[in-house]
Structures are given as structure tokens and as C-alpha cells.
Design brief:
By secondary structure, this protein is mainly α. The protein has a domain of about 35 residues. Helix content is about 75%, strand content about 0%. Helix 1 packs antiparallel against helix 2. The termini are far apart. This is Four helix bundle protein. InterPro entries: 23S_rRNA_IVS_sf. It comes from Candidatus Ryanbacteria bacterium RIFCSPLOWO2_02_FULL_45_11c.
Length: about 60
């Protein structure tokens, strides 16, 4: 797992990107079977969407 420097502790954009990266690394280590083939893509998509949704919401605040 990647350590977050104290100066960036509350940098949510960076933290959500690290979440996606860590989940992808984790998913690559999981052995393959029928159940996992269905669950891992959902897990990766959900983890990545956290960062995408945060960035989208953060950009929307600028226009308000």
C-alpha cells in the first residue's frame, strides 16, 4: 500500500487516484476462477469511479 505524505493527507484527488491504483494492483494478485472473473472487474470499476466522480463533482463546484 502506498504511504500518503502528511502534506497531502487531505488531498482527495490524489487519494482517490491512489485508491484506484492500489485496487488494480490487488486485483492482479487474485487467482482466477468463475466468481472472481465477475467480481474483480466490478471492484476495479467501482474503485476507479470514486476518483472520476470526485473530479467531476469538484469541477462542478467551479461553475456554481
Amino acid at each position: 500500500m502506498t504511504e500518503i505524505p502528511k502534506s497531502k493527507l487531505y488531498d482527495l484527488e490524489e487519494r482517490t487516484a491512489l485508491l484506484g491504483e492500489n485496487i488494480i494492483r490487488f486485483a492482479k494478485k487474485i487467482p482466477d476462477n468463475l466468481v472472481i472473473k465477475r467480481i474483480i472487474p466490478q471492484l476495479v470499476a467501482a474503485a476507479i469511479s470514486v476518483g472520476a466522480n470526485y473530479c467531476e463533482a469538484d469541477d462542478a463546484i467551479v461553475f456554481i
